[in-house]
Design brief:
The complex is a heterodimer of chains A (396) and B (120). Chain A has 396 residues and is of the alpha+beta class. Chain A has seven helices and 18 strands. In chain A, the strands form four sheets. In chain A, strands 3-9-8-5-6 form a five-stranded mixed β-sheet. Chain B is mainly α and 120 residues long. The chains are: A alpha+beta (396), B mainly alpha (120). Chains A and B meet through α1, β4 and β7 of A and α1, α2, α3 and α5 of B.
Chain lengths: 396, 120
């Protein structure tokens, strides 16, 4: 058994070029064959692979869970036309598998590819030999390349393969999800499935912008209010509740997953903002977790000995909250807190002061306003949830 | 007319195979200098002979195919065909397609893993 060398220490691309000197002859062939070359009679495009695509997309489309298999390369051949994801505004690198006939042919081949409806062009001219061979080709840098905007393209490329004495016209077709960068995902919700990618591209595409802060702002703007009655473990399911909405943490996780799926530049962190009963005006920020909060690890009791009333954050609608979930998003030197179901805030104190008050409450009622952050008007729902003796304190 | 007996033909094939082993070892010296240096000339030829046997077990017996198989061994590691880190490798190696297609498809995936497929 020979010794085994360590992997690496070389370049597969260079090895591939050197390998092109080898034929499909058997390794123990006793002669190298006839040296006379014939003219090319036919060139067929057998397959096409998107080398500059991200190569992360999986075929699961039945529901919002992770699953399925990676789409295999090549993404186009006669039997299969798989979707791909690709960063917008960049050149495309493709690999074509050609079959040149007859097998002992040799001669020049000109390849032209034009994407229908797009300013993308592929041009190549080279000497080819008979048999099957792979050709790597970049989109022409003089053309615009893929559009920068996030969108789903039905990309049809018309290929003209022209050799001395003939040509062949063939079209390839693939769905291309144009993104802002390579897709990523939060650790607690991995998986680049077709269903999720389609939704993310649709949602971000509707924002009609490529500015990361504007994208986050507009995605959050789809949910102007939170709904505490709809909390989803898998935030992708929020797509199915466009009118019902969801609680703040679901909205924030949904937006985080959507922007990461399209490779949105910037740093996004899930945070919750709350406060302690001892310091109700000082915002506490917990990152990457919904714990700790007003209720955990222990409730903040009004009277520790009796343990019947605890601190809670009450909003102007009168709902009790453990926290306000936000997406802490930074890009180009700017950081904002995008509060789920509320909107963009400059800092955690601003988020906290969007609540009506920190109150003491028991299982049934709000019993006391411990600290009021803002005044309630007579039309605010919170007044209906407060006992009458607190109305004056709420409004003054 | 020249008549070549079976025994002579066998000897010719063995010689061709050895010549091919020498060529592949030279290819490794050129493209994978660290690996070649670590094994030396004789060690590398022995390594290539073993790699040919392994490639043939996957139906790869063409010159292009075997060189590609050796390149993948050296790029990804000697166990790339059974390593759980590359679940696609065994699936592609056992496909019922020509050796060249297997190697070219494997290379696509390998370059993805190694980060050699880039953007402009």
């Amino acid at each position: 058994m020979p010794e085994v060398p360590k992997p690496g220490g070389g370049d597969l691309g260079k090895a591939s070029k050197d390998r092109s000197n080898y034929s499909d002859a058997p390794i123990d062939a006793t002669q190298t064959g006839c040296s006379g070359k014939k003219p090319i009679t036919k060139v067929t495009l057998l397959s096409l692979a998107f080398l500059s695509g991200h190569g992360v997309l999986k075929d699961h489309d039945a529901d919002w869970s992770d699953g399925g298999k990676l789409y295999v390369k090549p993404e186009w051949d006669k039997e299969r036309q798989s979707p791909v994801t690709h960063t917008g505004g960049q050149r495309m690198q493709l690999q074509l598998l050609l079959d040149v006939e007859p097998t002992n042919a040799a001669g020049p081949l000109e390849i032209t590819g034009r994407a229908a409806g797009l300013a993308i062009r592929f041009l190549d001219r080279r000497e080819v030999k008979g048999g099957r061979s792979h050709i790597e080709i970049w989109s022409d840098e003089k053309t615009e390349g893929l559009p920068a905007e996030v969108q789903s393209l039905d990309m049809k490329i018309h290929w003209l393969l022209a050799w001395t004495g003939g040509d062949n016209l063939v079209a390839t077709q693939n769905t291309v999800f144009v993104t802002l960068g390579k897709p990523t995902a939060p650790e607690d919700c991995p998986g680049f499935t077709l269903k999720r990618m389609r939704e993310a591209v649709r949602a971000v595409g509707l924002t009609k912008t490529t500015n990361p802060h504007s994208i986050v702002d507009k995605l959050m703007g789809r949910f102007p209010e939170y709904n505490l009655n709809n909390a989803l473990d898998n935030a992708w399911e929020l797509t199915d509740f466009p009118n019902i909405g969801a609680d703040c943490q679901t909205i924030v996780r949904y937006v985080n997953q959507v922007i990461q799926m399209v490779g949105c530049p910037g740093t996004a962190t899930f945070v919750v903002v709350w406060a302690t009963a001892n310091a109700p005006t000082k915002a506490v920020v917990t990152r990457n977790s919904r714990i700790p909060n007003m209720m955990q690890p222990t409730k903040q009791w009004r009277e520790p000995a009796s343990m019947t009333e605890w601190a809670t954050l009450v909003d102007l609608g009168g709902a009790r909250n453990k926290y306000q979930a936000c997406l802490e998003f930074s890009h180009a030197g700017q950081t904002f807190l995008y509060a789920g179901g509320v909107g963009r805030m400059n800092n955690a104190d601003e988020v906290l002061h969007n609540f009506f008050a920190m109150c003491w409450a028991n299982e049934k009622d709000i019993t006391f306003i411990k600290h009021r952050y803002r005044r309630a008007s007579s039309t605010d729902e919170v007044l209906k949830k407060l006992p009458e003796y607190l109305h004056r304190l709420a409004k003054e | 007319m020249i008549t070549i007996r079976q025994q002579q033909l066998k000897a010719l094939r063995a010689a061709s195979r050895e010549e091919f082993v020498r060529q592949v070892a030279e290819h490794v010296r050129e493209c994978w200098p660290d690996a070649h240096a670590s094994l030396g000339v004789a060690g590398m030829r022995q390594y290539v002979r073993a790699a040919i046997d392994r490639a043939e077990a996957y139906g790869i017996s063409t010159q292009y195919g075997v060189v590609g198989f050796v390149d993948l061994l050296l790029a990804l590691g000697d166990d790339f065909d059974t390593n759980d880190a590359f679940p696609w490798a065994r699936e592609i190696l056992t496909r019922d397609v020509p050796a060249r297609e297997k190697i070219d498809t494997l290379e696509l995936y390998a370059r993805e893993v190694l980060g050699e497929n880039g953007h402009a």
